[in-house]
Amino acid sequence: MTVLHDEVLSFILGEVFQVSVAVLGSLFHKHFGEKEHRENMEKTLKEIIRQRRTYYAIENKSPVTNTEIEEIIRLAVTYLPSAFNSQSSRVVLLLNQHHIKLWTIVKETLRKMVPASAFERTEQKIDAFAAGYGTVLYFEDQDVVRLLQTENPSYADRFPVWSEHASAIHQLAIWMLLEETGLGVSLQHYNPLIDEEVRQTWELPGSWKLIAQMPFGTPIQEPAPKNSNPLEQRIRIFT
Ligand SMILES: Cc1cc2nc3c(=O)[nH]c(=O)nc-3n(C[C@H](O)[C@H](O)[C@H](O)COP(=O)(O)O)c2cc1C
């Protein structure tokens, strides 16, 4: 009888607890608003790695504020690793007319190079990036690379390579953090064609070498499924 009573009591307490959690959750949402609720629902790192894709079809909207996008950039640049902790990576966030200006530079640069008959396709591609919400530019500061080479001559030929690795680490982390907010992202390489004009337009130091351009915006079309080659060819595990 006592055992049954205890079971019933623990069942009731369990139900009360679940209802309380649900009520608290909804109060939390109401009290702290959408942003905190979204933070509470943040995806795990594994989920983001599984879901991250290249989005070419994007529009000029963002599910998060500009401040949140800026925070993502600051977080990444503060905490990501670099060879010898050299912190050679430089990141530029372009929003509004700055984002449009970048893709105008790309388009007008390519217009001078691509045959007129093939330009329509190029133009459509560039316009699709321009239709997004913003672009992140990735640079590596060659002054930092050169200083490392002088100070550590035995590794001199490694530093430019490690600098590119550091940039890639920044690119992927920011790609995943933007994707986690609901933004669609892609990675583009119109450098070195646009380097000089980009440097002049935003008055960036001459030592900053452009590595990549990352347009982003709210996705308007899901990417096609992609294949994954057999893991047996790509991973070897020894235990
Ligand atoms: C180092 C690197 C360079 C890339 N360069 C470009 C590029 O210049 N243009 C482009 O459209 N996509 C580029 N991509 C995106 C890849 O094409 C894309 O990641 C790949 O096809 C896998 O698709 P997913 O990103 O949807 O998983 C690049 C990706 C990486 C990792």
Summarize the structure.
The protein is an alpha+beta fold.
Can you put this structure into words, describing what you see?
The chain has 239 residues and is α+β, with helices and mostly antiparallel strands. It has 2 domains: 1-41; 45-219, 3-Layer(aba) Sandwich (NADH Oxidase), CATH 3.40.109.10. The chain is built from 9 helices and 5 strands, in the order H-H-E-H-E-H-H-E-H-H-E-H-E-H. The longest helix has 39 residues, at 2-40. It is globular, with a radius of gyration of 24 Å. The N and C termini lie far apart (54 Å). Flavin mononucleotide binds at residues 53-54, 186-189, 223, 226.
Features:
239 residues, alpha+beta, NADH Oxidase, 2 domains, 9 helices, 56% helix, binds flavin mononucleotide
Tell me the layout of helices and strands.
Blueprint: H1 2-40, H2 45-51, E1 58-59, H3 66-79, E2 89-95, H4 97-111, H5 116-130, E3 134-141, H6 142-151, H7 159-180, E4 184-185, H8 195-201, E5 208-219, H9 231-234
Antiparallel strand pairs: 1-5, 2-3, 3-5, 4-5
Helix pairs in contact: 3-7, 4-5
Residues 53-54, 186-189, 223, 226 line the site of flavin mononucleotide.
- Assigned CATH architecture of the largest domain: 3-Layer(aba) Sandwich
Shape: globular
Low-confidence spans: 15-35
- Work out the strand percent: 5-15%
Order of helices and strands: HHEHEHHEHHEHEH
**DSSP, total strands:** 5
Average per-residue pLDDT, rounded, comes to: 89
Tally the helices: 9
Biggest pleated-sheet summary: 5 strands, antiparallel
CATH domain topology of the largest domain:
NADH Oxidase
Counting helices, strands and paired strands, the structural category is alpha+beta
CATH superfamily membership of the largest domain: NADH Oxidase
